[in-house]
Design brief:
This protein is α/β, with parallel strands linked by helices and 127 residues long. Helices cover 39% and strands 21% of the residues. It contains 7 helices and 5 strands, in the order E-H-E-H-E-H-H-H-E-H-E-H. Helix 6 links the parallel strand 4 and strand 5. The chain is globular and about 30 Å long. It starts with a strand and ends in a 9-residue tail after the last helix.
């Protein structure tokens, strides 16, 4: 089985730590790198291949021009939405990000979403 590489870019240390802990327990996933606020994650993404990127809405919004120039990366991007405001910001609505995880979601829901990235058949409804 191929191991999927994840990059995590979340401004909150506690949220980042919790998500990485969940990811490390899912078979078939490897967290390649973690970035916090001010860390040069865009430079890393320019020179490294990534299967999936999990990024907080605030970091995504600050880096929107970078994502607009990399539409293939948008398809590999999962947003962490903090629940503030009415929904994910303008970048995620106008561009095709892969999925959204809300901060209020429980561990099992997050695991299902992540596993669904690795195996899209898990996201389909049973007939």
């Amino acid at each position: 089985m191929r191991i999927a590489g994840f990059i995590v870019v979340i401004d909150s240390y506690l949220v980042r730590l919790g998500l990485v802990s969940i990811l490390n327990r899912i078979h078939g996933i490897r967290v390649l790198k973690e970035f916090g606020p001010g860390d040069p994650f865009m430079a890393y993404l320019k020179s490294h291949s990534v299967d999936y990127l999990i990024i907080s809405q605030s970091e995504f919004d600050r880096s929107l021009d970078f994502f607009v120039s990399k539409p293939d990366l948008l398809e590999k991007t999962v947003l962490i939405h903090d629940g503030q405001g009415e929904g994910p910001g303008p970048g995620s609505e106008q561009h095709n990000t892969h999925s959204i995880i809300h901060l209020q979601e429980g561990k099992e829901s997050i695991i299902r979403k992540i596993q669904g990235l690795l195996d899209p058949k898990l996201n389909s409804d049973p007939e």
